[in-house]
Fold each of these.
Amino acid sequence: MNQYSYRRAQIENDEEINFIAKIDNTIPAKFDSDFIINDKMNEDRAKFLKSCKEEDFFEVALDTQNKIVAFHLVKKIPYFDRFAGRVDTLWVSPDHRQSGLASALKKRAEQWAITQGLDHLHTWVHSDNQKMISLNKKMGFKTVNYKMRKDKKDFNQITVTTQDNAQTEFSKSVCEVEIQEIIDRETQAWNEKNVELLLSIFHPDMVWVWPTDANKHDPMTWISFLGKFNYDRWSKVYLDWFANYELKHNVRSTQKISVTKQGDGAFAVVDIDTLWVTKTGEISHWHGRTCKTYTKTASGWKMISQVGVLEY
């Protein structure tokens, strides 16, 4: 019978984290042909893994040769006024499958969830990953929602007639759905304190301009402290923010989405009420109306600018 030992992943160990990141990226690639693995993907995944906090569950299993043969990551995330655990990955080396390792790691995560006082654990599994689906059901997980997909080739195109009676071949309704998806993704990223997900919405030329006060409509008083989008710099800013601030609530409501007649640009008006509080009681309250501008790129919609939160 195999003997295994368990320990927390060493996020300060570049060799270990890069090893886990490369393997971790192969998991979705097995089930999603759109998921392409390259050096940038591996680097981004390694950055995400290194962002794990002490309060997160991130363990590896070692064989008798002290070699990593399995790992499991569950992030502690806000869930309304409580906290939940989001399963980000679970992997067992092919040579050690059917040994009970996956179940053992999931049980250890459940014990961690109890000590953290979490409301629940949740996970996403590809519909073709039947082994993981079976394991989750065996461990007591229940299906609570479905992620459904429709490929671009199956979209129902409509013809939009412009004022000059020119015909443009794009579906405005599809664009609006895509814009709402990126809005929802941003909301999810704030809720989960997920830097990788948050940075996925920004265009490389994004410059974030921010009013110093929600009642200061005059742009003469606005500031831009982040500079042009830079993955490493912005990542550090948000990692520091998430480390110092606790999210109390984050309510966002889309009031309007407007797509250009060419289908290559859009803006969305979103009302937000986002409250952050530090351990010392310092408050940062984003409350008011924003206008988010998006541009269509080869890889999808990206936010390229935003008028920060203002009261109207």
Amino acid sequence: MKIFKFLVGVIGILTIALIVTVIILFNKSGDLPNIPQRGITLNGVESGVADEMVVNFKDDKKCAGKETAIWIKRIWVDTMIKIIKKEHGDGVRMYFAKDLRNKKNTVVIVSTFLVGPDLKTETKADHEDYYDHSDDFFSSTDARLTINTGKTKGAVLFEAHCPCDSGTQFLPATRDDNYITCKDAYNAVQNFVKLGEGQKIDTYSEWFPLSFFRKVEIAFKDEDKKNRDEPADGIRIYFAKHTDSTTVNKNHMRRHALIIVPTKKYICKTDTIHMDYFSDDLKLTWTGRLNMADFRADHAHVLEGGAGDNGEQCKPNCQGATLPAN
């Protein structure tokens, strides 16, 4: 009798193991969703809803407006870095999406962790999405996005005239494929605006390393020191489309992209404006043990005199991307 019970127990364990193995294999092949329906994105959207938003975009890639940008609070950047670092994540993936209610263009932001090497991708690594977090911050109002348009005050890349002092403010030794100047950022955004409503967006998502946002955090602190009356207060994410001359990354030429710019608080009469700013201070580098070689090796983005760009795009680098689930 004991032997019989033992055999039944062994068979039960083997059955469970087989079921788990089958589920894993199906997930790997993409036949089942890789996302928990009750998970949360970094901008406070349940993962099931986020999936629908990305499906909406893929079903209709036509842009729903000309000037499109998203603004996020500084507290989001600061808190997101701490949480993702604590969870041993390695970056952030931003998906092009459409709001379920008004069908307007927006983004869904998801955290990622490093699975391992993948020599076929730009970063030579597989960055897998995840939706379960150790902190409930991403369910708070501070994690919500604000949609900006051409009428949004402070969104200077939408202005009729280029706001940049010069074409490039980078030292040749510090510029590589991850950098974009203010002028190139402006021209890429204006190219998107020129193509206008109805243009088909050809990029599904863009991945940025956590080190990029740590660089943003440094830029925030530097701006605070320069002008305490106008502290850094967030980031603005612009929809853009590169030309052959607005990026040094050949894979991104003539493709849609997301360009990230830091903003600062600016009071005009009774209005509080989130103003884009572009620093030309080349002294902004990593603190502590990291040097410029480490900085570049970590795929970090530079903000001095320009903006953040050249994340790893899907397509063609879709490894690790989970939206849409099917």
Amino acid sequence: MLCIFQLLPTFLHIVTDLTTMYLSDILFLLTLPFLSHAIASTSPSYLPVLIWHGLGDSSTSSSLSRIAKLINTTHPSTQVHIISLAPPSASPSSVGQIDQRASFVGNLTLQLSSICTFLSTPSTNPFNPPLYTFNAVGFSQGGLFLRGLIQTCPAIQIKALLTFGSPHNGISSLPACSTFDVLCKTITAAFRKGRWSSFVQGNIVPAQYYREVNGQTGEAGDDYLDYSGWLANINRERNEDRKSGREREYIDRLSGIDKLVMYMFEKDRTIVPRETAWFADKNETTGLVRKLTDRALYKEDWIGLKKLDEKNGLVFRLIEGKEHMDISDDLLVDAVREYFHPIKEDKHVNNEESRWDELRTQHIFA
């Protein structure tokens, strides 16, 4: 029988081999979190995206959900929020109907203010964790409202805004209603009865970006300048508005974004004139179209478009042969890839809590 002392060296050798083998496995497992972090850090991350829909649409529509998924597929892990004007207390089943109605009826100044507060308040901010810097996509009037949000909401920052068929320079007539759209026909009747009344200009959404021009001069009409409930203010078309002190705020905020990309549909018959999607001015009496760069709005830089253009931030895109909102998936994907860039080291992006604290200190938000 072998003495236990004779077997001891062999036993110790086996224990040493096993320890070495398992120790290497343990060390490998311990490094996995660091390896996964290194791998994750090489994948680009992107800003969250806001979407605002057009007239008669709703935040719960299947088409917008599909677009949100398309953005998320193009840039994986991107958080997307579809803006809704339904109150937080609304039941899930009623959100779509309430939001759709709000695209027709409501005060635009109050609506934008409510969205500004919603996005700017940590407890209601839709992103996890709360974020205050975004990219944005606006369809039809939603693009105009997002541009207005940039100008009037100091607590948020939009880096790139894509607008599709958006009436930046207003409309000369309300969009046609479908046969059985009772709500649309009701507001159209009210508009025709008193388009410049305080009730219409304070409660009918498309009326608040309706714009008339002088048939002889092609300039903004007197009634529009006197009674417009929203657009004349947001475009700073009144002399008194441009002397109010807020002009500099509008200029700084709009010129501070990276890109304003405006898509116009070549065959658009819903938004009249279609050139409004490019901020162009059209005299419906003479048919003369005056492009943005020829207008005082640009030359005198009433809202910051010239300053934005000087840093190559103003982009005009034509969707050839297409009618209003006829957008292919490929076009959307290409736009997202071209204009929604990976997050860079930026104090506004990576230090959101400090940004919020700074705004509270300035008493912008209580």
Amino acid sequence: MRVAIYARTAACEGNPSPSITRQLERLRAHVTAQGWEVVEENVFVDDGQGGYTLERPALEQLRVRVRAGEIDLVWSTDMNRLTRNHADVRILHEESQSAGCQVRFLDDPACEDSWFRKWSEAQGHNRMRLAHGNPTSR
């Protein structure tokens, strides 16, 4: 299993920032506990980068490697480390799914099978609600 980990924080509080250090410690501990190994070339870090764009150096490198079929599984602490933009969720979903790569999150076990399922279901619910003339959720 070729495992990658991804960490991101918007605030650059050092080199690396304490938040990045904590994320990486948790991710490495989890991956090791599963019996997998993460080689350094599969550690992707965007320190001091906002989550509202996919234009981040480490994320771009990770996406290239996923699309090339070089990564089987990506771990991050939670979905907003990868993106805070709902439109980008679809892009990341299509890229990883096409490459046969799974994406999982430590802090959201409900998304372990497919971190996109929850978002996709919400979008389907929103489309259905709007189609029936109900613009507010219940």
